[in-house]
Each structure stands twice: as C-alpha cells, then as structure tokens.
Amino acid sequence: MKWKEWIFAMASCTLVACQMGNNQSKKMEEGMNANLAMKCEVEFDSVMQVGEGPIWDYKYNRLLWIDTQGSLMIYSPTTKENKVIKLDQMIGTVVPYLEDTVVVGLADGIYEMCLSSKKLKFIADPEGREAGNRYNDGKCDAQGRLWIGTMDKDCTPNKAAFFCVQPDGQQRKVLDSVTISNGVTWSPDGKAMYYQDTPTLQVSAFDFDGEAGTIQNRREVIRMTEELGTPDGNAMDAEGMLWVANWGGACVTRWNPATGELLQKIEVPALNVAALAFGGEDMETLFIATASLYMPDDKAGNYPQAGKLFSVKPGVKGAKCNYWKLGNQQ
Q1: Which of 44, 128, 110, 99 is nearest to 311 (CA)?
Q2: Which of 162, 200, 210, 310 lies 20 to 30 Å from 194, alpha-carbon distance?
C-alpha cells in the first residue's frame, strides 16, 4: 500500500474508533464556516514537488524552506527571488543558525550547512542508519536545542521516533513508536510543546521544562475530522493559538490548544498543505507551503496551483523562531 493510501485508510479507521461528541463537532463546524472569505494568494509562482518546512529567519529577513525531494531554498518576499540549493538526498527540515550557516535534517543525519559553499558539517545521527528512516520535521527550542523526528519512506506504522539534539551534539530519544513525526512548536511562555504524529489525526501537548530540556505529561489537545485531512506542520501565533497545515484538507486551521476549539479556517488552492510559518518584517504574513505530489488522480485536475508557496495575512502576528545554538547570541 502506498503511503498516501495508508494515511487516508488510517484516518478513516481512527475516526470510526474515536467519534467526537456532538458539542465539539458543532463548535468545529462553526469554526470552519468562519473567515471563509479570506483567501490566500500565490507568494512564489513556481511548483515544488513537496514544499515543506518554511521558517522565517527574522535576523536576515528571509524565508528558509525546502522541497523534500532535494532542495533547500531561500526566499525574499521583497524581491520575490527564490535561491535554490540542490542537494543529493532528501531533506526533512531546515532551521536558522548564522547568516551563512543553517542546520538541516537530511536523509542520513543532521548537519550544519554552509549556504555559500554547500559544505556539510556533521552534527548527529541519533537514530542510526540501521533503522532505515529519514529525518523529517524539526525546530529549535528557546535554549537552542533541536527537536527533530523521523519517518520511514513507506510510512511504516510505529517505526520512527522523535529526538532532542543538544548544541554540543549530545542526543537522546524522547519518543518512540512514531509513524510520521511532524509539527514541533512551543507556547509563547515556553511551558508547553506541541507535536503531531500525522496519521493519528491528533495534536499532542507536553509540559516542557526548558532548563532541563525534558517533556512529560503527554495529552491530546486537538483531533482532526476527516474533511480536514491530517495534521502536518504547525506554527504558533502571538496569542498562543496553534495553526496547523491540513494535508489532504486544502486548508490551514487555527485552534485554541487549551479547549480544542477550531477558531479559523483558511482555504488553500492545493489539496496537500504541508507546512506554514509566520514571517515578514511585521510577522503578520502566514507563508504556506504545499505539495504537487501524492494527489489522487481524480483530484489532481482540481488543484492546478498545487506545489506553490502561498501567503495570507490572517489578522494576527506570529511568534518568532528560535535559532540553533541561539545563533551564537547574534
């Protein structure tokens, strides 16, 4: 079974087993009907295979993002220039560090990468190559640690894991039995970390200890419905509300993680919405990365703009990103 078919099958099974109460369903329906007039626009008019991982590098006013099939990109909203750095393997994430150096999660490990020379400096491979997985989504916490997960190329259930990598290269596994590790972000006060294993349809919250770098007390805070697809990337806004990219749902959604209430839905002209990030000089623009791959044949014709980078101003500012090693305090 192909991975996309497996995801949809898992979603259907999970929904049957975990039906929501009438009150919660009603709230979600009301939320989905809100703000439907708000439309996103094409930000960069070029089609990616799997656009992913946007993150606003606010120190240098640029959007770092990727095509998982082997490209790291640097986009300037001011000039509309998108610099593409071709890689010889798949890439799962990029996080900012210095002006000419970023951190990337590649298929075979985590590296510092020099943007001008493309040279790689190995940091860690906490899972090891014997697992047969590749690194996927990841973000840094406020202390400069990288939290990053993995996935199997065939999305084998419960084969992957989630890790924490220290600035000095020390590493540890924090979750196992993961299928597709995605969406890492923190509450504005840093006391909660949000995370999703995509096929479960859930967004989880953990109590986060920034000093110790530990997570505990996992609980489900959001559960998707079938029409919303599955949760891929996520982002936090300045009001502490969680934004989710809805793979298979042609939309992005805003949630209250304290109540599980759907607050806002913005339609996207791409079925598979992979990731999102607030950015721009005022942090008021929501950048949305999408995929042109993995669409059912009967739906491909409905989404001719799939794979493009979109943007919208949803009326709220986003939280700023964190840097690897704190960006050397720059």
Answers
A1: 44
A2: 310
